[in-house]
Amino acid sequence: MHKIRHGTGVFVRQLALFGWLQARCCAVAVALFAGMAVSTLLPPLPVARYDLLLVYGVLLTCVCHLLGWENRREVAFVAVCHLLGLVFELVKVHVGSWSYPEPALTKIAGVPLYGGFMYAAVGSYGCRTWRLLDLSLTGYRARSTTVLAVLLYANFLTHHWLPDLRWVLGALLLLATSGTWMYFTVGSRRHRMPLALSFTLVGFFLWLAENIATYLGAWTYPSQLDGWEPVSVSKWVSWALLITVIFAIRAIWRIAPARRRGAAVGRPPLATT
User: Fold this and answer.
1) Residue 22, CB half-sphere, CA atoms under 13 Å: how many?
2) For residue 188, what are the domain limits?
3) Contact present, 108 and 242 (Cβ < 8 Å)
4) Could you report the average pLDDT of every consecutive run of 10 residues in the chain (273 residues)?
5) What three-state secondary structure class fits 262?
6) 3-state SS string over 155-179?
7) pTM, full prediction
8) What stretches pass through the bilayer (predicted)?
9) Rounded Cα–Cα distance for residues 74 and 138 (Å)
10) Count of domains in the chain?
């Protein structure tokens, strides 16, 4: 009985600490959503809400860097995520997948420039997760995973005109990541989970975040034009697949300097096959 109680206590403490670490990893995303929420409460202003959110996003990025939450390399990585997100938004808005109905000066082809910050927030989460949870990988097939991630990103852009191969590519991704384990530290304990499971979990929380964002008017799906309704659960799968792009880029960002330094003392920062 004592062992059961001790084990339960350890589990609860680990779970609470893991939740706290995840909250710290999501700090930028939470701050971005808080800005969106506050913007909906503002009285009418001479500046468009989307333009204000762009300024807020830039200031948020500067503050994160000044506070040491993100170093220069990480800021550069977040900027890449922002650009990839803007390209994604430009295509999706063009084909009518969703829209940004409010006016703004900083709109290009119907997409406000602040839209990329939502993808940048995901990139920031990736950076802070690697650092705060001391992530490492074993059995990671860098080349095949990266190629499939790029193909998935391209498929999400082109499936409006070409055959949709997301399920085929998703199945190949499961094969490529089979045997790949993600290790992470919570307190003094080291844990692991299958990499594919981590994609699924992150995709689920991004789907929840998308529901919050659309409720706050960050963008609008066609089904939400007459009033907000929950985002389709199918978007969970889409996010779980799309997150592989950001993960693959982040992994490359980590592998290159690690290989230049050589093996570190203790466990390697990233083990690949």
Assistant:
1) 11
2) 27-261
3) no
4) 67 89 88 87 88 93 87 88 93 91 92 90 90 91 94 93 93 94 91 93 90 84 84 90 91 64 43 39
5) coil
6) HHHHCCCCCCCHHHHHHHHHHHHCC
7) 0.84
8) 21-42, 48-68, 75-91, 111-130, 142-161, 167-184, 196-216, 236-253
9) 23
10) 1
